[in-house]
Each structure stands twice: as C-alpha cells, then as structure tokens.
Amino acid sequence: MRIWFAGGCFWGTQHYFRKIRGVTSVRAGYANGNGENPTYEQVYTDSTGFAETVEIEYDPAEASLEFLVEMFFLAIDPLSLNRQGGDEGTRYRTGIYYSSEKDLPVIRRVFDSWQSRFSSPLAVEVLPLENFFPAEEYHQNYLEKNPGGYCHLRPELFALAKNPEKIRNYILALREFTALAAGEKDSLALMANAAAILKERMGFFWVGFYLANGSGSSAVLSLGPFQGPPACMRIPYGKGVCGTALAKKQTIIVPDVEAFPGHIACSSLSQSEIVVPVFGPAGEVTAVLDIDSMEKDAFGEPDASFLERFVKAMTQN
Ligand code: SME
User: Fold this and answer.
1) Model confidence over 224-278: pLDDT tens digits?
2) Is the CB of 271 under 6 A from ligand 1?
3) Which of the four, 113, 176, 310, 315, has the lowest number of CB atoms within 10 Å?
4) With a threshold of 0.85, does the pTM exceed it?
5) Residue ranges per structural domain of the chain
6) Ligand 1 atom at shortest distance from the alpha carbon of 262
7) What superfamily does domain 166-314 belong to in CATH?
8) Residue 169 Cα, ligand 1 centroid: separation in angstroms?
9) What are the pLDDT digits (tens) for 171-180?
10) Which atom of ligand 1 has the smallest separation from the CA of 270?
11) CATH number of 2-163
C-alpha cells in the first residue's frame, strides 16, 4: 500500500518514516506539480507547483494508514502555511496525497480530529496524488549519507518513530473514547470513563479531573473522577500545575515536578505531569485533566496532541 506525505524538507521526513516498523520503503521526491521529471533546482524556484514529498510504501498489517497519518501530523506544524522549520515556499507546503479513494475516510477522520484542537483552519491539503517523481539520488536517504546535515525535525521525533507504542495506545484509547462519548452529555460520566480508559490503555500512574467551581480568580478546583491513589481534594486558582492551567487556559507540561514553582505534591511518587484544560461552551475552563507519571520527562507534544483531542471528544455533543 502507498501514501504520499509532504511535510516540509524531505530529508527529515524520509529519515523519520524510514524508522517506523511496517514502512517498507520511503522515496523522496516531488508531487502534484506541473510537468515531468523536475530537477531539484527547478522545484527550488518555487514556480513548478511541486511539493517536496515522501512516497511511503507500507505493510498495513504492521502499520495502519490511520497510524501513519497520525505519525505524519506529529512531525509537522499543521497550522503553518507554506513553511516548516526554516524552510519557506509552496514546495514546503504540507499535504497528504492518496491514490485510492478508499483511503480518504481514514485520512479525513484523523484530519478532523486534529482540526478539533485548533480554532484556525489546518494548513494541510488532502488531495488525490496527481503525479510523483523521485528526487535525485543524492537526496535519497540524505541524512544517513550526511549525518549532522540540516534537519527541521526535532530529534525526539526520531526516537518516537523507532518506538511508537505509546502512539498506538493513544490511537486505540482515543478511538474507544470517541465512540463511547458520541451522543453522551453527562460530563461526570464522560470524565469517569475518560479516566478509566486512559488508565487502562496507557498505564498512567494517576489520571483524573479537577472540576472548576466559581468564576474568575475566585474559582477553586475540586477533585473529580479519577483513577489512581487518593489525591488532594482542592486546588486554588493559579496554584500548582492544575491551578496554573486553569488560570492560563492552556496545556501545561511539567518534565520535573520538583522544578515547577508551586507544584502541589499529592503523592511523593509523582515525577512529571501534564495538565489539559477542558473548555465549556463560552470558552471558560470547566475542569482540568491531570495525568501524573512516576518517571521524569514522561510527557511531551504528542501527549498534548492526543489529550487535547480527548477532552474535545468529551464536549463534542
Ligand atoms: N500535582 C498537581 C496536583 C494534583 S495531583 O498531581 C493528582 C498540581 O500541582 O496541580
């Protein structure tokens, strides 16, 4: 099976997808432009319409299309139009190109799920593949031939590509929860099952919700549905990681709780955490989702991307 991804400079995207088990071949090339067999120099003029693209061949028994599209989204800035990392131009646009219409519903599902995180539209095109020409030989596996060569992808993405078990688990957890949440309006019941699914599927040390009571800076968080050891029952606005996420209205990742000023230690075993706000219809924070790990540095951007979609699925009805 084949799928084509434009994710900015193809040196980095080829290196990234080559590390994923189930991907059997990756070719760097130029897609969806005008003319035939363009050279790098022609594409570089940014007037050919071609996008730097990787052609992925994969074994669906080992790597599903859904998983590959998720891995693609994790490796791009999906809001950035015609720019990834230090590279700018239409040749560095982001896109998913398919050769079989059967792939479209899966691509759309992941696309819509990512869109739910943001209020501005994604800058990722989803289109049929019109054409693809492999790039010159010196561009193939460029970063293996030139270790230390320019790469716009963060190094931790290569570690993720080699060991994507957590992503596979998040995909199952998010799919299970989205199905369960469809049509359900009872937020307490949804929070209870969200905590259970995250605990069961992801094996986190502590997963739970704090509910916001009161408004503005007089709001207080009180303990809601959770899984794990007993926890603090109340957290004031602006205090601890949870109270900070409430005040700032944004996801907070704490790699080392000891280094976070004002961290509230409910359990001495907790070493790192992530807190994601849950928004109400008027954009107010109604609760926060808090996840703790017994290891340092357990959470990053990939966790934020899945957990923000989790809480969106909770309020979709
Ligand atoms: N550590 C959190 C408090 C909640 S517990 O981790 C369950 C904080 O600083 O807000």
Assistant:
1) 999 999 999 999 999 999 999 999 999 999 999 999 988 898 888 999 999 999 9
2) no
3) 176
4) yes
5) 2-163, 166-314
6) 9
7) GAF domain (3.30.450.40)
8) 24
9) 999 999 999 9
10) 6
11) 3.30.1060.10
